[in-house]
Amino acid sequence: MEYAVYLPPCYDEQAQRRYPVLYMIHGQSYNQDQWDRLNADETLNKLVGAGELSPFILVLPRDRSWAQPTEDFFGAVLADELIPYIDDHYRTLNERAYRAVGGLSRGAGWAVHLGLSRWELFGAIGAHSLPVFWSDTSHIRAWLDAIPPGEYPRIFLDIGEKDRPQILNSAMWFENILTERDIPHEWYLFPGYHEEAYWQSHIERYIRWYAQEW
After folding, report:
1. How many domains does the chain have?
2. Residue 201's closest CA among 188, 213, 211, 191?
3. Euclidean distance between CA atoms 79 and 131, whole angstroms
4. Antiparallel, parallel or unpaired: β 57-61 and 3-6
5. How far from chain centre, in Å, is Cα 43?
6. Torsion angles phi and psi, residue 185, rounded to 5
7. In the predicted model, what is the mean pLDDT of the chain?
């Protein structure tokens, strides 16, 4: 698996400090540089430099396949190999409360898949313009049932009101399940389309949300 790692400016200077980790997954037909192109690292630098956020490590893995999770081993490799590797090679806070997963478009589908099926690994899930994997739809409720009371991750959902109808309906379907079950979450329907201009316009909001409890 190819991946990129962002380390905060203080990483080398504060050799005893450990950091939370955010795993951010790109959209279909793109690669691990998409979040970099959307200014995720520059935004993080700005907010940390201004003293508005605590620093954290950003990991950007590459998903090479466009298959469903039943056929694509990306999720298993991220959970079982990449996370332990990052924890072994970088000064991370390797508790669930200090690890989050997020993504846009197909990456949002992965964030929900991993954040629920492997809930013990992630304390927060961010799904931006979410299409739920069709192979996950029959498992979502069971995954939610398996999470012990009081252990639900923080959840952030947003999508553009002019997104593609199939994707918009998928995101709303998932949000309705959370609402029906009284599972705390944040849900935003913003102006915009399924495009990089939309995600870039909200990048600061995303970064602030992931870091707000760190």
Report:
1. 1
2. 191
3. 20
4. antiparallel
5. 16
6. -165, 165
7. 96
Residue 24, classed as helix, strand or coil, is: strand
Q: What is the pLDDT of residue 73?
A: 94
Q: What is the CATH number of the domain that holds 106?
A: 3.40.50.1820
DSSP string, 84-122: HHHHHHS-B--SGGGEEEEEETHHHHHHHHHHHHTGGG-
Other C-beta atoms closer than 10 Å to the C-beta of 149 total 5
Q: Which two tokens stand for residue 204?
A: 């600061």
The pTM of the full predicted model, rounded to 2 decimals, is 0.96
Contact 152, 184 (CB under 8 A): yes
Report helix angle 40-49 to 203-211, nearest 10.
60
Burial 89-102 (b: 16+ CB within 10 A, else e): ebebbbeeebbbbb
DSSP labels, 119-156: GGG-SEEEEES----GGGTTTHHHHHHHSPTT-PPEEE
Q: What is the pLDDT of residue 5?
A: 97
Query: Which of the 8 DSSP states describes residue 163?
Result: S
Domain span holding position 42 = 3-211
Q: Which residues contact 181 (CB under 8 A, 6 or more apart)?
A: 144
Tens-digit pLDDT profile for residues 86-135: 999 999 999 999 999 999 999 999 999 999 999 999 999 999 999 999 99
- What pLDDT does residue 29 have? 86
Task: Identify the bridge partners of residue 101 per DSSP, sorted by sequence position.
Answer: 23, 125
**Distance, CA of 144 to CA of 73 (rounded, Å):** 22
